[in-house]
Write a structure and sequence with these properties.
- This protein has a single domain, classed as Ribosomal Protein S5, domain 2.
- Helices cover 42% and strands 18% of the residues.
- The chain contains three helices and four strands.
- α2 links the parallel β3 and β4.
- The longest helix is centred in the last third of the chain and has 28 residues.
- The chain is globular and about 50 Å long.
Amino acid sequence: MAGAEYPRQVRLLNSAQFKAVFDDSRFRASTRELLVLARPNGLEHARLGIVVGKKNCRRATWRNRVKRQVRESYRHNQPALAGLDIIVLARRGIADLDNGTITQHLTKLWNRLNRTFRDSEAASCAAPASP
């Protein structure tokens, strides 16, 4: 499938990039099992970081499954999320969900995040300039 890669330029790679999103997350969307934080990045593409802690998802195979689902969902929704640095945090109970449910939650979160970001962009463009 063309355009469904996950190269370095679409990932948050170091702690400074993660810290910037954690410290200045302007957009949030969540379900009981997932939290998505985002901030504008000034780029033409989105960048993704995934946090699945041992406390919330004990077995490595479970953590890897969750990360695979997040990456796959992100690949399919990447064009709609352009211009954002995004972190997906897994919460307690994520390991109990099946793959389809995780994908449904993520699709809902991507749509909510995109709508919030586009609305704020439109509001900032429509705001009158102060003298």
